Amino acid sequence: MKHKFLLSILFTILLGIILANYTYYRYQENYTRKPDFYYIKQTKKVGEQGKQLSSSLATTIEDNEVSILGMTKDKRLAEIIKTRYEENHIIVEIKAGTTDNKEFLNELSQYDILLDNASSFEETENILKTVLATFEETIGQK
User: How far apart are CA 23 and CA 62, in angstroms?
Assistant: First the structure.
């Protein structure tokens, strides 16, 4: 009798833990937003001297001057772009971004096709200039 009672309590606790984990992970799947695009940025502290590229979108985030050099929907392409900038001695990093602007995301998909076929740094940089112009047009600088 005593064993049956303890076994039922143990079974109830185990069932509660399993259901709690299931609910938690379902919540995470449904409410965690995945990045819509990746942007490549060059960062420097305010007052520091650094090479400012003319093909960048300049903005300030938390007392840092941030130069956004380009955007892509594909993480693999973002890594390729980062490598091309670093080969030209420009230190950059990749950050994830989200937007609800479907028009911009559709255009970004088209530019990703061009970026995937770009073979040189200059070609990549020209495509990224166009991406930034499209970004300013459709979303605006924030």
Answer: 36
Closest CA relative to residue 104, chosen from 79, 77, 136:
136
Amino acid (1-letter code) at residue 23: T
CB 59 within 8 A of CB 41: no
Residue given tokens 């609910």 in the structure block? 23
pTM tops 0.85, yes or no:
no
66-91 pLDDT, tens digit per residue, is 788 889 999 999 999 999 988 888 88
> Residue 11 CA to chain centroid, in angstroms?
43
**Backbone torsions φ then ψ of 74, nearest 5 degrees:** -105, 120
Q: Give me 50's structure tokens.
A: 């650094």
Task: Please give the Cα distance from 96 to 72 (Å, whole number).
Answer: 10
Q: Is the dihedral of CA 18, 22, 27, 33 positive or negative?
A: positive
Q: Which two tokens stand for residue 46?
A: 């305010």
Q: Which residues contact 98 (CB under 8 A, 6 or more apart)?
A: 33, 35, 36, 37
3-class DSSP state for residue 32?
coil
Report the alpha-carbon distance of residue 52 to residue 55 in Å, rounded.
9
